[in-house]
Design goal:
Aspartate Aminotransferase, domain 1, five-stranded mixed sheet, 15 helices, alpha/beta, seven-stranded mixed sheet, Aspartate Aminotransferase, domain 2
Amino acid sequence: MKFNTKAIHYGAVHDKQIGSHVTPIYQTSTFVFEDCAQGGDRFAGRDSGYKYTRLGNPNTDEIATRMAALDETDAGLYTSTGMSAVSTVLLGLLKSGDHFISSDCIYGGTVALINKVITNYGIDFDTIKINNYELFKKSFKKNTKLVYIETPANPTMELIDIKKVAEITHEHGAILVVDNTFMTPYLQKPIVLGADVAIYSVTKYINGHGDVVGGIITGKKEYVNIIKNPYLLNLGGTGSPFDSWLVMRGLKTLGIRMDRHCANAMIVAKYLESHPMVKVVHYPGLESFPQHELAKEQMEGFGGMIAFELKGGFEAAEKLLNNLEIISLAVSLGGVDTLIQHPASMTHAGVPKEERLKGGVTDGLVRISVGIEDVEDIIEDLEKGFAKV
């Protein structure tokens, strides 16, 4: 079964009694048992039936199972938000006394989680430029248990060779976790490339319509089982049935939406690269992108995310962002409509300035999530904005 067929059909839940074609929404907090024996069997694990939605629900199980299939891996979990996915993975796979390594440019919320929460539990970490592979090799300690990367990085689009990092990570007996939100399984498959666990904010491309928050964890069963029980079930980060039903609806069109996102983003990236007010454009599809060859090797397309730096710094960026009409000034990404934001003052505002600049998030950097509108209208709107700079 190929990708788009899987995205539409894999693991579908059909109500045989009613005959519904689309999976119903099982909007219930609890499930009724036929008798005491069945209730006891379900809580003892002898019966796989449902007990309570925090512990499992047909809707959350369906999206988790389908995403695992799309990632070509063993198991999946659906969570209430993308950050719930990140926090549950880190708390589930690390314990007091452990050390982990993180790439130097990741989502600002993840940086805050690490600095303000994870380190409170006696867990140590180092943030490094992981694609400096010799430095990466030297960063392992005897207690290094996990490596955490985003590729492409949010928001700079810098890439990391997943195969190479997986080999180095496993040589040191550690687990590799990849945030694959920007690419989705349609464009990049971290588990196939050697990672152990993949994380997604399904708020973004998987859902694709900007009306749900949620997260997905996929990966090898041995790790997913640990993350699920006792961590996800007891921390309570399970997503709701209705939200997961909406995400499943979005997932069915992921492939055709990503094709359009990629096509539009390439045109917008070339337009920006030729603009006299733009200093540099970070987009893996451009031949000028330093890691263009790696992008062609490990990705099936170049995605819909672009970062670009304006010659006039923050002042120029502010004028551009304040003078757009079709393009919305908003954080988040991956929806059908184009969004634009200023990472240094928005998504990465909580990252210490020295750390932010080290990761390439300058004051003049702008991030744009290119939507699926008619691309001529996107460029016309940017042109009107640039005219005000």
